[in-house]
Queue: 2 jobs
Job 1
Amino acid sequence: MAEKTQAELLREQLFYEPKNAYDKLSEADIEAAEAFSKGYKAFLDEAKMEREAVSFAVKLLEEKGFVPHEPGKKYRPGERIYYNNRGKALCAAVIGSRPLEKGVRILASHIDSPRVDLKPRPLYEEAGLGYFKTHYYGGIKKYQWGALPLSLHGVIALRDGTQVTVRLGEEADEPVFCITDLLPHLAAEQVKRPLAQGLKGEELNILIGSRPFKDDKASEKVKLAILKLLFDKYGITEADFLSAELCGLPAGSARDVGFDCSLIGAYGHDDRVCAYTSLMGALQVENPEVTWVVVFADKEEVGSEGNTGLHSSFLKYFIYDLAEAAGVSGRAVLSHSQCLSADVNAAFDPTFADVYEKRNSCFINYGVVITKYTGSRGKSGTNDASAEFMGKVRSILDDADVLWQTGELGKVDIGGGGTVAMYVSALDVDTVDIGVPVLSMHAPFEVVSKMDVYCTYKAFEAFCRASGK
Ligand code: MN
Ligand code: MN
């Protein structure tokens, strides 16, 4: 082999070039990524909405010896606790050996994804067909939700205090539902609408049946027949929809994508991919030096509002409880804490290259993506991590040999977005966004790479394992 020229040596020393995982990682890593992706796909299928993700996590945590958090109880290093916030959000922690007032390490992801929620009075009949009226949740391109098999997920709270769990349309022998779209033959006017109105909000009506109740005299016989079926199956009447949270989700399982099966396609990678990788990564660290806290938040897709979203106080109260029991101030703990806001970024898509600034985009297969800031316009509505904390995270990942890249959410002034980062940093916690690059984000079928998922898992493990010195 010819000796390297001075320019080549200098390039190696001075240039920064992100690397493709398939060039950088070993065969053993590639196999480990494939194995990890199997568990992730099972999680995607079982935990399609926030309540299901919390149930999945609680079951796993209890198997691993975690117990419900008791405010006021003093914990020793190595103890494992969780707090289930109303079945829709979660904190889990393992107490570290370092004194709590020196801070904790937080991994905060969200487990809600864009979808179509049922309205409080959803059920109606029109022209012999039964429908649910919906109100979409989060940022969707509404036209993508027509002519697609949908499943129904959620809960119905009954007047007697009991709760009915609904999950229908995921198994092969179960029916699915769908929003109908107009045939092209009659869509001459519809196709001239702006894309945002391809299907309008009030056109997102879910078809749920057509067989009328057998009775010549009654009216709304299809609606009546559907209500009879619902009563027989779930014990509910029409009024019970008022105290329900039901949503239509894309039906079906996560699938490998590509001849090489290198990618995973599924509904709701954003942000269950970071929820799963953060929990699995943290669980690798059984006796941490620094207390780790994994947070699953709800409501991120609608601005983190509500008492299960991170704009509320549930994370702060959880940390304050730990601090109080340890006899230190909650403020001291938070001010010395660090957080990885675990959320996805938009992977460079060559089909739509003009919305990305290529030098500052993240790429599929280039590893976990660190996003210094999100927001829009002049960095409005963002956390914008400090140089110091970026440097800290960078050195943790490099020391653990984790493949990472950086990314910005599209070109300047082309759009933007936000994450939970600004709500955690508002607690005086050093915070930066980090997660998995995603193609077709917020579509009913999003795509991620198995290597990126694996690198993200490794990054979260490294963060929880890192020394607190
Ligand atoms: Mn997200
Ligand atoms: Mn999102």
Note: The pocket of manganese (II) ion (ligand 1) is lined by residues 110, 270-271, 300, 343-344, 419 (CB under 6 Å).
Job 2
Amino acid sequence: MMMHATLSALFLGALLAVSLPAAAVDLTISCGTVGREREFCEQATSAWAKETGHHVTLATPPQRTNERFFQYLFDLGQGDSRIDVYQIDIIWTGLLAKHLVDLKQYISQTDIEQNFPAIVANNTVDGRLVGMPWFTDVGLMYYRKDLLEKYGLSVPQDWSELIDIALYIQTQERKAGQSEMWGYVFQGAAYEGLSCNALEWIAAYDGGTVVDKEGAITIDNPQANMAIARAASWVNTVAPPQVTSFNEEDARQMFQSGNAVFMRNWPYAWAMLNAKDSPVAAKVGALPLPRGGVKGISASVLGGWQLAVSKYSKNPEVAADLVRYLTSEAVQKQRAIGGAYPPTIMRLYEDPEILAAVPFLATMRPAMESAVARPVPQTGTDYMAVTTYFWDAVHNVLQGQGTAASNLKALEDQLRHVKFRGGW
Ligand code: GLC
């Protein structure tokens, strides 16, 4: 009798296991909102939800990366469990690590190792993989091929040539009735995007990276001064006065409407500029950024985004499965073709369909390898203070509040205080 009851219980258990799906879980993901990021995130998360029977809600964080960072830090600091999966910037892995799970518990070594080792290394904090690479980024120079051709000009090689051409075409186009035309747009608002642009100007002229690899503060030097003073001279001559409040999307919208000759932006802009309804579709080229003078280099800042699972998630295992899916080869491929998000999986750089959709990816691999990193490892938890003082100082100069020399000198002093207090 006893035996019989046990067998029936076993049978019932097996039946339940076969016929009942694992309980459906509700997850929340906070992915980006720049350009078409949200749309892409929605598509891929619903495909995963359909496949697994789980449910995913999208949270909407602020567009600017630094605002997003402080919101995340605040929520995670309180152990908030509302968001399971976070899209995190390449510069935050160390800053947020203690709130994130080690994805190595859930994602196979083979899946991890197909990504660029430098990104995996960046995302590994004290031996824990706190973010799975999702897409990478480098600064690019977009230009109007049709306008360069119209004026018989070739693609500029260095920053002064770029500004000369920008001003020339702007002037000619305005004479021809295009009264809204500007030569150059970039990210000039006081936020992380300006830190990236300014670092590119300075590094191109061999003016360093604000804080060097050993942690010494280097920002107050003649090349950096010159690079920032030059950039300030662009405002209201080749760049619109409102560029000092532009983020990525403001610059992209102006360029896409046909009112700028050159634009600095990240790869995602490519897909939007070439969309069917874009006024500049098929009229745009994209190149590495120009050199800083004859002896300078082409310096592009390295960006990029990872997916991370919160330690406070109630369903870390299911959340990690969503991360595994979103960062998989198939999803990275769709996002590269449809949205120009540069993959982090190395072999996708040889994929003919991706290269046909986003031709500059063929040359992006070397550009990524030589890209300029922001001074994150050397400043540690002080990075947000360093970058905030940096973009504020540069923003002052762009707005004509003090010279480059006086602002960079003051910046050097501010950074000394931060270093003294934080002791990086
Ligand atoms: C891009 C980059 C990111 C950077 C941000 C600045 O999203 O991928 O790394 O911090 O731009 O605006």
Note: DSSP finds 19 helices and eleven strands in the chain.
